[in-house]
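Researcher: Next entry: Suppressor of tumorigenicity 7 protein-like (Sinocyclocheilus anshuiensis).
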Amino acid sequence: MADSSGRNPQSHCFTEKLKSWLCWSWTYICALWFAMVLTMVYVLRSPLKLQETVNAASVFLNTLTPKFYVALTGTSSLISGLILIFEWWYFRKYGTSFIEQVSVSHLRPLLGGVENSSSAGLFSSVNGDTEPRTNVAECKVWRNPLNLFRGAEYSRYTWVMGKEPLTYYDMNLSAQDHQTFFLGDTQQLRPEDSVMQKAWRERNPQARIQAAYQLNVILFFIMCIIKMMPKFTSYVLLAEEEATTITEAERLFKQALKSGMELSHTGKDTNLVVYIKRRLAMCARKLGRIKEAVKMMRDLMKEFPLLGMLNIHENLLEALLELQAYADVQAVLAKYDDISLPKSATICYTSALLKARAVSDKFSPEAASRRGLSTAEMNAVEAIHRAVEFNPHVPKYLLEMKSLILPPEHILKRGDSEAVAYAFFHLQHWKRAEGALNLLHCTWEGTFRIIPYPLEKGHLFYPYPGCTETADRELLPSFHEVSVYPKKELPFFILFTAGLCSFCAMLAMLTHQFPELMGVFVKAFFSTLFAPLGFFADKMESFMPSCLWHQLANV
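Model: Predicted structure:
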């Protein structure tokens, strides 16, 4: 062991020296190597029979028929076309070139190159600090505070459209949330908790519903013996999964709440009660009882102020906007739109909506260009730029430049999933404010002039994280085209293979249509290609002394 550990540093040092020497040699001695190769080829022309080989090649090329060139160029075009199709598919799926990725990952380290860490500048500060930050929160997946009901909303979409709106990754995250939030972190679970834990893990909705019914039947007999109420987590699962209408889901949640309130509140039962009350408030909001929903949300935030991670204030903001209680919305924003608190698209875009609403009804781009922007208009534009910098995907959904889909159960802040979730619930509020969408349309693209390099340096926020595309592809269904920011240019190898495929196809077509003309062209090309060999030999023989030349030739 000691010997092997002692040899490792020496081996590593030798490898590093070898890599550095190779890098230096490729950089500075390429011209010398090229001259040495040419010299050796000429010196060894007699043993290698170079002249005879060139003549034989010329004769062989002259005897080839045009059909050979058609087959050659056609095959080259087919192969390059297949490479192009694969490269394009890989780029659309993973956002990078396969050839480029293999080159950077495997070939560049062998040649002594250092990988460019694109993530090094992802979290540099606004003040220009280039020190890399391991800020995991930038790419953390959050529970969608306005997530829909599976049975009453997601399943109905599947029945009508025949498409699955949720990915398995998203549903697996929800199952983990339910186990952690409802069942706690205790090592010794109650028997009913074990049944529900198994139910949440089931991938098939019918299996989850069956497990919930099984738990209710088991606990019904236990209730007769020890007078225990049926476990209310089963009602939660039935309300989420089986209820096909919001009214039915509300009835099951009320039944779950009644069962939960009669139990002694442990920590995990308190979490479940909070969840049930929040879903009841969302049911009231969906059923049109908005004032009741607002009261339930306010009471919940007042009763459990430490559960801010649930982002109940975002539910409250949406309900208040539906009531058009803009003063109350501003009061909520004053509390939660603080520099020390984490931001979201709901916070930033609601703040921009309130400021845009104050000036949008009289805003005109032509008038603004003549007289300039007023103070209120400038504040509105700055608020829009701030919101767009935080999440640049939202405006395309609000302006209906991209089609909306059902929001996922989890979102990635500053990502396309958060933009879908925000626009799905708040598009109607922007439409209700006269001229707000027009002001957004005229000003949102100006944000990108302020942050020309968003992955390296931000203006009001940290640089835009480069990990959002990968996470959004996991959260959003496959039939949705994920929005990518900043827009990626086509890799070099896709353009190269496209040009190579087109060039070979053109040569094949020309050779097939004009065989004689292309034959003359090929002969002229190869004559020009082999002419420098004879020229080089003549020059070498004229410049070098005859004695030295004969000695080299006899080696």
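Model: Note for the record: Confidence is low (pLDDT under 50) at residues 1-9, 113-137, 217-230, 543-555.
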